[in-house]
Structure formats: C-alpha cells, structure tokens
Amino acid sequence: MTYARSFFRLTLVLIILCLPLVGRAQQESKTTLLPSPSPSPSVSPTPQRATGVAEEPVLVNTDLISFNITVTDIYGRFVSGLKKEAFSVYDEKEPQKISFFSDDDAPLSIGIVFDLTGSMSGEKVQRAKDALSHFFETSLDKDEYFLITLQSGRAFLTLDRTRDSRAILDKLTFVQTKGNTAFYDAVYLAAEKVQRGTYAKRAVLVISDGQDNNSRYTFNDLRKMLKESDVAIYSIGIEESGNGSLAMEGSGILDEISGVSGGKSFFPRSGVEMDDIFEQIALELRHQYSIGYRPPNFVSNGKWHRIKVKVSPPRGLPRLFVRSKEGYFAIANPK
User: 156 and 273 share a domain?
Assistant: First the structure.
C-alpha cells in the first residue's frame, strides 16, 4: 500500500513537471501548422497555349509610315518599273528618307462592300456581279477577300477571309434587294476587316449608290477612320436614273471616301463601261508601288501630317502623275 502511494505521488510530480513542456510543444505545433503565405504568382513571358491553337501575332508599335502609290502618264496608263530614286516624299514639306520600297505584284487583302438594299434593282446587282467576276479573273490565287453585304438595314460580314472568289459570287446569287441602307457601317466594317488582313497591300471595293439612312457611324466617323487607315477605297457608283438630289449626294460621298483614302471613284453608265472599270481597278492594284519612311523625331501626339509625293520621270518619259493617301495621324500603330 505504501509502495502504491509512493508510485502515485512520483507519477503526479512527473506530470506536473512536464506540463510546461507539453504546453510549449503544443504552441510550437500550432505555429508549424499555420499556412505559410503563398508566393506571388509569376508571369511567364511565354505563356503555354493549348496544343493546336494558333499563336497570335506579336504586335509591336512602330513609327513606320507606309502607303501605296499609283503612277500614271498623261493618258492615264499605269507606269511600272520606276526605281526608288525616282520618288521624293515630303512630310509637312520636310523631305524624308525612304526606308522601304517595293513594286512587286504582291497579294492583296480586299474587302468587297456589295449593296443589296432597296435602292439597288435586280438588274444593277446582276450587272455589278458580272463585272466583279471579271475582276476576279485578274486576281492572284493568294488574294484574300472579305464580303460585306448591305441587307435589311444592316451591314453583314457575309464571308470572312476567303480565297474562293466563286464562293463570293455564289453568295450574291438569288438575293432580294430590300430595306434601308447602313452604308457607312458597311464601309467601316470592311476597312476594319481588311486592316487585319494577311497582306500589307489593302483595298476595299464599294459597289453602291452611296446613300445611307440607317448607320450607327456618321460620315465624319467613317472619314476620320479612313484617314487613319492604310486602306484605299475604290467606289463603283450605281447611279439612279436621273440626277436627283439623292443621287448627287451619294456621288459626293463616294468621291470623298475614295479620295481621302488614296483610292478613286467611278460612275459607269453601262455594263460594258462597268467591266472596263473593274479591269482598270484590278490593273491599278497590280501596278502600285509601296513606300515607307520613318519621320525623324516622331512624336505620337495624334497630329495630322500631310504627305506629298513627287516622281521624277526617267529621261525620255513625259510628265507623270501620282495618287496616294493625303496624310496620316501621328499615332504609333501596331504592325
């Protein structure tokens, strides 16, 4: 009995002596089990993409001012084969050093705006479609197209990035012309799509009477956008019979958007003349020069700069004429 009491007392003493150690161990155990703060996430410079997903192009800001030039003689014939030394470029009357020059017959990104609204009769649509097929005959196999149609008061991206010209003509078969006209929206959409095209040479063919009564964008919105872009507008005006005020207004709009972009407007009076015009546009696009330069001390301040291009004809050639875009806004564009 005495032995049992002694053992009990000894055990009790040991427990009392060990309590601080147990408490300290519990404290340390709790501290160890607290979650440590997770490290800040690191951003990988080359994020992993799922297999089979195409890489997006890297966009880099550049101050390269690039545009296309059409050179003709006094008879309106296209002049090719000129060297870089024949051209002089002026930015706000200051001479510039040409850093990029090409006269290659390179593939094109082409937007086609086809008006299928109520002001376009079935005969006009068929006539324009026939002429468009002649245009395709002069195109390169690598040329890409975007088809925007005007129908039921809206602008539709009917075909997005295709090299199949037959598919475009098929989309224009058995169509009904009806509804209001969102003309400004359609040209705006076409220019936007073409700017994201594959090729550096870009143009939009507009087949319409130029009338608008249903657009979200205004004429000033469209004009400003075209001045900022490097897309040339070629307008084929399908005129109403007679010379009413609406017809005159549409012609003026087509003239303006073509001129400000470095393109040209045409107003055919017959199917034969329309065929000739489409052939002329195709030849012009195939015989253009591409020029680029970097203005010294470029400042991205959004200021409008006027461009002037002069060409000195080789000895023996008569006077030559140049057509290009009027200028640019000083904004470092992604290329």
Answer: yes
Q: How far is residue 138's CA from residue 154's CA, in Å, rounded to a whole number? A: 30
Dihedrals φ, ψ of 108, to 5°? Answer: -125, 150
Structure token digits, residue 53: 């997903």
Tell me the per-residue pLDDT of 93-102, one tens digit each, with 9 for 90 and over: 999 999 999 9
225 and 144 in one domain?
yes
Q: What is the pLDDT of residues 239-297, one digit of tens each?
A: 655 455 557 888 999 999 999 999 999 999 888 898 899 999 999 999 999 999 999 98
Q: How far is CA 128 from CA 28, 80, 188, 240, in A?
A: 86, 29, 21, 14
Overall average pLDDT of the 184-191 stretch: 96
Q: Based on the domain organization, do 93 and 113 belong to the same domain?
A: no
* Residue whose pair of structure tokens reads 């003239």 in the numeric block: 255
Name residue 248's amino acid.
Answer: M
Statement to judge: residues 266 and 322 lie in one domain: no
Strand 264-266 and strand 232-237: the pairing is parallel
Query: Do 114 and 98 reside in the same domain of the chain?
Result: no
> ∠ at Cα 312 (315, 303), nearest 5°?
175
Q: Encoding tokens for residue 117?
A: 């609204």
Could you list the residue range(s) of the whole structural domain that residue 73 is in? 61-103+302-334
Is residue 92 located within the same domain as residue 206?
no
The β-bridge relationship of strands 108-115 and 98-102 is unpaired
The DSSP-derived string for 144-210 is: EEEEEEEETTEEEEEEEEE--HHHHHHHTSS----S---HHHHHHHHHHHHHTSSSSEEEEEEEE--
pTM: 0.77
Q: Which of 147, 160, 200 is nearest to 333 (CA)?
A: 200
List Cβ neighbours of 263 (8 Å cut-off, separation of 6 or more).
Answer: 203, 204, 232, 233, 234, 235
Cβ atoms within 10 Å, residue 79: 19
Pairing of strands 201-208, 232-237: parallel
- DSSP character for 315? T
| Interhelix angle 183-195/219-228, nearest 10 degrees | 20
